[in-house]
Amino acid sequence: MIEKAIHALAEPRRRDILYLVRDKELTSSAIASHFDISAPAVSQHLKVLEGSGLVVVRREGTKRYYRIRKEGFADLRAYIDHFWDDSLLRLKEAAEAEERRNHEST
Q1: Inter-CA distances, 72 with 37, 39, 63, 65, Å
Q2: Which of 11, 19, 63, 73 is deepest in the core (most CB within 10 A)?
Q3: 2-104 maps to which CATH number?
Q4: Where are the alpha helices (DSSP H) in 1-106?
Q5: Residue 10: phi, psi to the nearest 5?
Q6: Type and span of the H or E element at 64
Q7: Distance (Å, rounded) from C-alpha 1 to C-alpha 5?
Q8: Of 52, 51, 56, which is closest to residue 69 (Cα–Cα)?
């Protein structure tokens, strides 16, 4: 699922859509009104976001309401945190090694 999330986030308009539905649920037409592309193009972006697990859709009659699916970001965040944690660990180890060298030379 990480690959699908990364693919979905690679497109700037999809990131803009996520920002729009971050705190509230919006219909596809309300989302489309924020863009200078066709409604079917926005619909395609929404399908990619839904398929990646980053948004969820709720159908009410003929309308579709989209909202962010925060759980969809959990795997992606864990993946990114893995790199961050490794970087901090390497920085800590380098600082400790430098401190040992400083104490040995005094």
Answers
A1: 26, 24, 23, 17
A2: 73
A3: 1.10.10.10
A4: 2-9, 12-20, 28-32, 39-51, 74-104
A5: -70, -25
A6: strand 63-68
A7: 6
A8: 56
